[in-house]
Design brief:
This protein is α/β, with parallel strands linked by helices and 292 residues long. It is built from 13 helices and nine strands. The chain has an eight-stranded mixed beta barrel, surrounded by five helices. The two termini are 39 Å apart. Bound molecules: ligand C2E and magnesium ion (3 copies). The site of one magnesium ion (MG) has 4 residues, from loops. This is EAL domain-containing protein.
């Protein structure tokens, strides 16, 4: 599962351990330490409501600045964390960090927004997922309404009964549930009606060329329509251009997330974004004009 980027990597023959499994081995050891020593970082990417132009929530995304390899993308270490079980303490750290931040925002009296947390299949289906989340909410005195849990199709195809009961327990806690990367997995439409999710996030794959590829445009229009029919909020991921924004506005997508508005940013920068008022479309228009 570990995807290796191309480029100039050493390809000498090592009879004991090849370079990939060596890197994997040290990464696992380093990740364990990084979680333990509180060396991971959490970035935040805002989600913007297309009607009001305001930030209405944000996704938390983990970052790891490795002492030797520099900033690693989650795509490089989340699969490793899933395979080794380190995903459990990692997610615990994310949940605790998010809830502690919310507590501090509350204390500072600033106006903030709900935060979403990505949860891997393995974690979502693990026995004490709900129990541990409940405990964090209790310890930090955070109301579940400030949280959203993002799951992907792989999580929900497996054990239907368990998925159903986990989702309903989350809802009892006031926590919203979103279906992440929608459209790229098995995309069974049955689970959309079966599970009581709140939000559907259209995968950025479909957004990338939505204005130039008529098939993807048709898919996006249909997903928006479908979500609306089912009473789900619909979010477009990976929005990078004004043209994409215009398209999504025209077909009444609810919210957007993407580089057009902001990349994922550290918490200090996220707080600055929160402090601003209405930001689209005029300010984004301006930003695009001044950037070029
Ligand atoms: P995701 O949950 O689908 O998160 C959205 C990804 O799209 C993020 O990548 C974000 O930086 C990227 N993105 C947002 N806007 C744009 C855009 O306009 N253009 C492009 N090209 N990309 C955009 P990131 O942060 O590298 O995370 C990748 C994946 O790693 C996430 O996909 C999620 O599946 C996983 N991940 C990240 N943080 C966590 C975590 O705390 N726990 C778990 N279990 N998984 C995580
Ligand atoms: Mg996500
Ligand atoms: Mg996604
Ligand atoms: Mg993804």
């Amino acid at each position: 599962r570990s995807k290796e980027k191309g480029g100039n990597r050493c390809t000498f023959y090592n009879p004991i351990m090849d370079i990939d499994s060596f890197k994997r081995f040290t990464l696992e050891k380093d990740l364990r330490l990084a979680i333990h020593d509180n060396k991971l970082e959490l970035y935040f990417q805002p989600r913007i409501d297309l009607k009001s132009g305001k930030i209405v929530s944000a996704e938390s995304l983990v970052r790891w600045n490795h002492p030797e390899w520099g900033m690693l993308s989650p795509a490089e270490f989340i699969p490793l964390a899933e395979d080794t079980g380190l995903i459990l303490p990692l997610t615990h750290w994310v949940e605790l960090t998010v809830c502690s931040l919310i507590t501090s925002w509350q204390a500072e009296g600033i106006s903030y927004v709900p935060i979403s947390i990505n949860v891997s299949a393995r974690q979502f289906l693990s026995k004490n997922f709900i129990q541990s989340l409940k405990q964090i909410l209790q310890e930090t005195q955070v109301d579940g309404h400030w949280l959203e849990i993002e799951i992907t199709e792989t999580s929900i195809l497996e054990n239907q009964k368990l998925v159903e009961s986990t989702i309903s327990e989350l809802k009892t806690l006031g926590i919203k549930v979103s279906l992440d990367d929608f459209g790229t997995g098995y995309s069974s439409l049955a689970y959309l009606t079966q599970y009581n999710a709140d939000v559907l996030k259209i995968d950025k794959y479909f957004i990338r060329d939505v204005t130039t590829n008529p098939s993807n445009a048709a898919v996006v229009k249909s997903i928006i329509h479908l979500a609306q029919g089912l009473g789900l909020k619909v979010v477009a991921e990976g929005v990078e251009t004004m043209d994409q924004l215009t398209f999504l506005k025209q077909y009444e997508c609810d919210e957007i997330q993407g580089y057009l508005f902001s990349k994922p940013v550290p918490v200090t920068e996220f707080k600055k974004l929160l402090a601003k008022e209405v930001l689209i479309p005029s300010e984004i228009n301006q930003r695009i004009e001044t950037d070029t």
